[in-house]
Amino acid sequence: MYATARAAFWGGVFEAAHVPMLIMGASFIGFGSMIKNMDWSLGDAIYSTLSTWALPGQIAMAEMAAEGAPLMAIVLAVFFINARLLPMVASLLPQVRREGIPAWGYYLGAMLIAATSWVGTMRRLPDLAPDQRFSFMVGYGLLLYTGSPLFTAAGYLLAGHVPEAVALGLVYLNPLYFMVLFLVDLRSRTKVMALIFGTVLGPLTYLFFPDWSLITTGLIGGTVAWLVGRRSTIGETP
Amino acid sequence: MDVFWASPIGIITLAALASFASRALGTALSGRIAAHSPVIEWITAVTYALMAGLVARMIVLPIGALAHTPDWMRLGAAATGLAVFFLSRKNIGLSVFAGSLTLVVLVAW
Of A146, A148, A134, which Cα lies nearest the Cα of A30? Predict the structure, then answer.
């Protein structure tokens, strides 16, 4: 598809510069507003985006810290939420391997893999020559990675300078974004059940034990959904 | 030390390490783990339940500035977002924008 590996890098940059950038940008604007809303500093907001760069975990961290959840509960929740990066990284990296890249290059490259860049790179792999894939992945991920602190800062600064109604709309971007994001792919019965159990258990457990509400919701709702999903799948196969 | 880890920088650092752990492990295991193994499916299910719980709580029982808005406004905005999502054949950007705009209009009214 591209003449050289360098062209593949720029191809990745340009491909990410459209809809993926807009959607991810809006959600990082929401994150910035949220951090401003809980009176943390602009530096904190940017530091979180650059060091974690996986928004669902960042949102959970901020929400739980704001309501005073114990540190252990926050770390566990973030670990579980971002554990989805493990299969993403493990499935993408073998397909972009090429000669001449040292092992640490892949660990660094893994930092550029998050939900948006994973989807964007995976669907292009069949069009790319094997020695161009790593470059494309880095170009695609790097544009999103370098853009996200700018959007985070914009959200933080905007939240302090726009009318209150607009600031609330910015903070509300994230619950809305994740609400629809998880509704995109509903082919798996396990996922649908996990969503339903989580929606019910989340607010309910929060009323009784706010500190460990999310961990309980995830472990109980997720495990039950997984068990039921497995049983029904096994039942269907002859 | 406890004071440091309880500060914003400390919490963010721990959250970042907890996130990088999965990326590092994924790199180390790359090519040696099946994308549809039971463990991966379990992690996915836990994540879906956890995130659904978080989103539901952020909408129904929000904290911070959103807590001062009436319930029906937040629910109305979420319902608008959902309606646009399904009517627009799952256009994420459009539905998020519509939901957020609904809240802005309702609050500003």
Answer: A148
Share of chain B above pLDDT 70, in %: 94
A 94-113: CB under 8 A from B: 94, 106-107, 110-111, 113
In this prediction, residue A238 carries a pLDDT of 39
Residues 6+ apart with CB under 8 A from B45: A190, A191, A194, A222, A223, A225, A226, A229
Type of residue at A217: T
Give the C-alpha separation, A178 to B88, whole Å: 17
CB contact under 8 A, A172 and B24: no
Residue in chain B closest to A25 (alpha carbons) equals B93
Determine the pLDDT at residue A182.
81
| pLDDT value at residue A178 | 86
CA distance A232 to A75: 33
Choose the closest CB to A66 out of B23, B64, B101.
B64
Res. B6 pLDDT band, cuts 50 70 90: confident
A117/B81 Cα distance (integer angstroms)? 24
Whose CA is closest to A216, among A23, A39, A80, A94?
A80
Q: Which residue in A111, A181, A217 is closest to B49 by CB distance?
A: A217
pLDDT in tens, A51-61: 999 988 999 99
pLDDT of A106 reads 94
Q: Which of A19, A44, A168 to mutate to test the interface with B (most CBs of B within 10 A)?
A: A168
CB atoms within 10 A of CB B7: 13
* Annotated domain spans of chain A: 5-184, 185-238
Token pair in block for residue A73: 């509960």
Closest CB from B9, B56, B105 relative to A202 = B56
What residues does each domain of chain B span? 1-33
Q: Which residues of chain A have pLDDT under 70?
A: 233-238
